[in-house]
Amino acid sequence: MDQSNRTYDILIIGGGAVGCAVARELSRSQRSVALVEKEADVAAGTSGRNSAVVHAGFNNRPGSLMAQLCVEGNQGFAALCRQLEVPYRKTGKLLVAFDQEDLAVLRRLLAQGEANGCRGLHLLDQAQLGAFLPQVGGIGAMVSPETGIFDPFLYTVALAENAVANGVHFFFRHPVTAIAPGSQGGYVVTAGRETFSARVVVNAAGLFSDRIAALAGVEGYRIYPCRGEYFILDQIAGDLLPLPVYPAPKAGAGGLGVHLTPTIHGNLLIGPSAEYIQSPEDTASTRPVMDQLFLQARQLLPTLEKGQIIGAYAGLRPKLAPPGEGGYRDFVIREDKPGFVNLVGIESPGLTASLPIARRVAALVGGSLDLSPRADFQAHRRGIRRFRDQSPAAQAALIAADPDYGEVVCRCQTVTRAELRQAVENPLGVRTLAGIKYRAWATTGRCQGGYCLPKIAQMLVEDYGLAPEDVTYRGEGSPLFAGRVK
Which of 70, 59, 6 is nearest to 32 (CA)? Predict the structure, then answer.
């Protein structure tokens, strides 16, 4: 089959938050940049399946890249979200102790966080905890005032859209199958049905970063997928919990423990579990783990009820630490071959650290290429106008300017037809139902799309010319309709 050949100065592999942050950062230069992603949209892996927390940086070993870049990312996150019009709220976080061993862990984390440059960490005794958050159990706690919550999918989308506005080309459904040296230097990358020539390649493939490195002849990396399962509760966070609540972490665990996290949209998350598995694509939810999740969550918040659950999901961490070791190994951000930059083991707090990681990658790339800045770089990205967030007067103005703002399609989340149109007509050209969901937040309410999903599919067929069989949830292999019945 004929393959087209595309030539760029820099090629990024992987459309997660880190890959998209790298794309945006490199778009500041006059170099040509492209990004290839095997899925039909950005944030299809770890970046779209996590706790949606902006971490402060006290969990990571002093002196590590994880610690340094997490703290740097945290302290610049609000400004970045303002530039990209991504919802973000600094909530603080509570780590709860249930015994003396846990209290010792909290004292260690406080000292570690202060060494890392975290601001405002302090301990609460049992009486202070009861006064601060009486609905939470425990004998003491640590408060992290710099922790926040945000929308990780929209954050990744916004990074990508801003990169596109600055000239980066995105190629979806382009899995990388081969990497070879170029005849005049650089690399030739086979992705999908095309070949890409690039002077510099950045491997930001997350769960598949070890495989991409091996394709380029860099051996020795191994990613261990670690699955975390979650419950999604109804929009009750405002009534139950104003900030994320975590247990004191246990030594050797693959994550930070089962915690309760309010989302930026008002839901409450329970999770994640931490289970090493074989496949980097196994995002199944399992009954035994989910049962255990709820039991552990009720230890933190005894008033939880199963009737508050409206959904579930699972995500995977790309861990470098094997099962017998547990815990965390540091980020790998390294030029392992001339012009080939590897980002390996970028697990939590990778989202928080995504912009500092991108800056570090740009510094490495600058050793091979002149990254002279472009004069017309656009730092700001305009998001979808959210009808439900507007005042009555502003809502009336929106409807007067565009009558589609007057038609509510998703009743649970008050998403209008105008917002759905903006989601469909996104700069990345994504037209999957999942892509529309995460851009407009339709189908995420109590009915989980029972009312609005057929209407969105109908809009794609009637207004945008898709054949019914081409309406998919996440792209190829996930059709909404199996066939016609009449």
Answer: 6
Compute the residue count for the chain: 486
Q: Could you say which of 55, 122, 169, 380 is catalytic?
A: 55
Report whether 318 contacts 223 (CB < 8 A): yes
The CA-based dihedral angle spanning residues 307, 389, 74, 298, taken in that order and rounded to the nearest 10 degrees: -10
Which tens digits make up the pLDDT trace of 14-70? 999 999 999 999 999 999 999 999 999 999 999 999 999 999 999 999 999 999 999
Residue type, 451: Y
Strand, coil or helix: 402: coil
354 vs 361: CA distance, rounded Å? 10
Write the DSSP symbol of residue 183.
B
Distances in whole angstroms, Cα of residue 55 to Cα of each of 4, 46, 121, 150, 245 = 42, 16, 13, 11, 13
Total-model pTM: 0.95
- 3-state DSSP assignment of residue 63: coil
What are the DSSP E strand ranges found in 19-158? 33-36, 53-54, 88-90, 93-97, 122-125, 140-144, 148-150
Q: How far is CA 273 from CA 57, 260, 330, 346, 450, in A?
A: 21, 12, 21, 18, 28
Q: Is residue 299 exposed (0-12), middle (13-18) or buried (19+ Cβ within 10 Å)?
A: middle
Instruction: Based on the residue annotation, tell me whether 55 is a catalytic residue of this protein.
Output: yes
138: left (phi over 0), alpha (psi -120 to 50) or beta: left
Within 8 A by CB and 6+ apart from 400, the residues are none
Distance in angstroms (rounded) separating the CA atoms of residues 423 and 143: 38
Band the pLDDT of 451: cuts 50, 70, 90: very high
Q: CA 204 to CA 54: how far, in whole Å?
A: 20
Instruction: Answer for the pair 129, 98: CB distance below 8 angstroms, yes or no.
Output: no
Calculate the dihedral angle through the C-alpha atoms of 233, 239, 242, 245, rounding to the nearest 10 degrees: -50
Could you give the CA distance from residue 177 to residue 78 in angstroms, rounded to a whole number? 38
CA–CA dist 457, 4 (Å, integer): 33
Angstrom CA distances, 95 to 53, 243, 481, stand at: 14, 11, 45
